[in-house]
Amino acid sequence: MQENGKERFVHAVRELSRAFALAVPHPEAMAIRDDVAFFQAVQAAFVKRAPGDERPEEELEHAVRQIVSRAIVPEGVVDIFAASGLQKPDISVLSDEFLAEVRGMPQRNLAVELLQKLIKGELATRRRKKVVLARSFAEMLEQSIRRYQNRAIEAAQVIEELIALAKAMREASARGEKLGLSDEEMAFYDALETNDSAVKVLGDETLRVIARELAEKVRNNVTIDWTMRENVRASLRVLVKRILRKHGYPPDKQEKATQTVLEQAEALSAEWAAA
Q1: Which of 88, 180, 188, 199 is the right S-S partner for 214, CB 3.0 to 4.6 Å?
Q2: In the listed set 130, 149, 173, which residue is the last one of a domain according to the structure?
Q3: Does one domain contain both 26 and 157?
Q4: Is the pTM of this model over 0.85?
């Protein structure tokens, strides 16, 4: 195929993918899903980059949009995943069954894009409630994707890294239950920098007590417009530091922990105001 013919073909598949994404899950669109997947696979084979080229983010955007757009809602999930060759997916996009299917996808670049987008979606949801945990996972995701884009690792390796990250996110959701903490208490527990060696010496029980007290006291002292009122913020800072000192939290770690606790409180305040 001549160069200009290849460019026309790639452009045509982009337009086809865009139209298909808009039409899904209409029955007539689903009837041609295998044909669309075939053309997308051929297009992916044509698109090559030199090592220094910038990664064309738009290249696969439309190819996976129809998958991602409905990946976490019940309606139409099975049909849309089937369009990418994934059979009988679990509604939970981070389940072992789903991750195993992604690992087996023949189109490795699509698997990377799909995992990246689903994990980003999960992180966006978690960021509204668990600032520290979401930030940590976001950094891990960014590192893996950057190495992949810089060709430091191949698609197969980054897929394994993203699957491991997805599983770690899922396991993190169960930590609160194991520690006997609510979601709000767990968010403040993470804000205490519990992985720091100086903080670990306090022990899990003391850290749980601090997290519970922070969740209760901060929530009871937060007003709807507290983020815009410096006097309320100052009072909360004093309150948080008082709790930390009372339980023997390391003095040199208190300032950072206080800032993180207030950041976490700000993320939760909209939900508290609506309660």
Answers
A1: 188
A2: 173
A3: yes
A4: no
